[in-house]
Amino acid sequence: MKNTTQIHVSHAQIILGIDLGTSGIRAAIVKRPFLQNKEENRFPEQGLDQILFTDSVPFTANNLGATASLRIDQSDCKPQSLSENASVQDPMVWIAALEQLLKQLSMRFDLAKIDAIICDATSSTVMLTDDQGTLLSNALMYNDAQAISAASIIKEVPVEQQTAANGASSSLAKTLYLSQLIDSAKPKLVVHQIDWLNNYFCDFLKDGICYSDQNNLLKFGYDPVSGQYPDWLQNMTREYAPNIILPVVGVPGEALAPITGNMQTTWGFSQNCRVLYGTTDSIAGFFASGAQKKNDAVSSLGSTLAIKQLINVPIFNTESGLYSHKVKDLWLLGGASNGGGKVLLDYYVLPQIIWMDHFLQALWRLQNLEGKRDWLIHFPVLHDCHNLGDYYALSSIGERFPIQDSQMVAILETRPSQSLQSINLENFPIKHFSEVLSSRELSEALKQCFADNLEIILQSAQHFASIVQGLVQIEKKSFELLSKQTGDGKTANLYTVGGGSKNRYWQLLRQVHLENCLQSAFSLDAAYGVTRLANFS
User: Fold this and answer.
1) Cα separations (Å) of 25 from 17, 18, 19, 500?
2) Which residue positions in the chain have pLDDT lower than 50?
3) How many Å apart are CA 328 and CA 216, to the nearest integer?
4) Burial 489-507 (b: 16+ CB within 10 A, else e)
5) How many domains does the chain have?
6) 0.90 surpassed by pTM
7) Are 22 and 166 in the same domain?
8) pLDDT of 325-364, one tens digit each?
């Protein structure tokens, strides 16, 4: 670690980081010394950061804004029925959540003291507006996979043109799909989720221009190696989306625009406050962790599972959904799976997840102490919960990384027909799991509490365990792929971020089946992590 007494600090900057994720919107206000040495400023020592405030507005069924409509105005849209691969939201609800967040922050902190605002948002969430910033479509979310025919067009791009704009969930496929649905001959702006946030502060869409960052544009087809839109992309948009205006590209962390006068009046921001180009949520999570040297890697388990590793040179592999983001003068190699914590939430509510996690922890501990567990003989996943079965956890059809297959389906144990909702798990409080000293005692205690319902609980636990093992299997396959591509073999340090990191059974499996290099994250907050990219030099 650096000797902080040798770091030359001239003054401090206050940065507002905003993370628009899948479960809500979060903010972190960070005070950071401005370092005179440019090398130190690239990734300042995290020990010098002071997180002044954090706040959040969670999404619920009421404010999430899920919609069955692709269009704001259906009169100008070709008839379209949404498939099971659809995931659509109204972008206006993000602004409502952002305004609630700013209101909460302004009650605790003087926003006039903020020097810069930098945001991150989910990658490949995209919509169209006209050239005055009026929405033409709702947003196709990161996991929307309706654009199958558009993806097949992109797939025809010559193999030597490696790109991250692959599959029906890429923002390029979604843009082509939306453009063909909307008949309007007027110019259309491609707007990613982060651009919609930045526009709230800067109001640039009304001028017929969308400013976006090279990280969010990677899955649109932007080439960060050459620093431009490749010819094949420009030719494709001219043919299939002729009225599309491509975004102006900026570097994450660099200045985008000053904040508007309306923002100064409404929220009290200073006229000197600048909005900076941001990044994706998984990249923000990466830098929250503490990772910053070559071969450091981060697993981010939120609604989806994203894997990234810091390397010196870019690598792209279209067939496996592997791509590289440029961050400052380094590269982040990795990809994002469609599998993640959302799979658990598709089947179980949070109290059930917590209960099942403690149950599996107890089985894990008791398996270390003894071998015979006859009462679990018909539940092989529970009988040997240390093992990693050949499972794969997806919440919908299709996978993008480490396997790219739009028709891939989950591989899980069968879920019992009877729901856990009808069973009161509180009859066996979580604290009881730490009190049992043997597998036999656990078996007898569960039988006493649940009687005839024990079979349903064990079937549910086996299904639950297969999901968690399926998540570890995705992670394991991802690192095997990264190792093969880089030729380095091992990660330097493996950090974990995201709400899913609270799942202890997941962590226990990872310690056994992944490299023994797991590190505690400095922070789990992407709203803090995105501030690490802020560049004041």
Assistant:
1) 11, 7, 6, 17
2) 1-9, 40, 79
3) 15
4) eebebbbbbbebbebebbb
5) 2
6) no
7) yes
8) 999 888 999 888 999 999 999 999 999 999 999 999 999 9
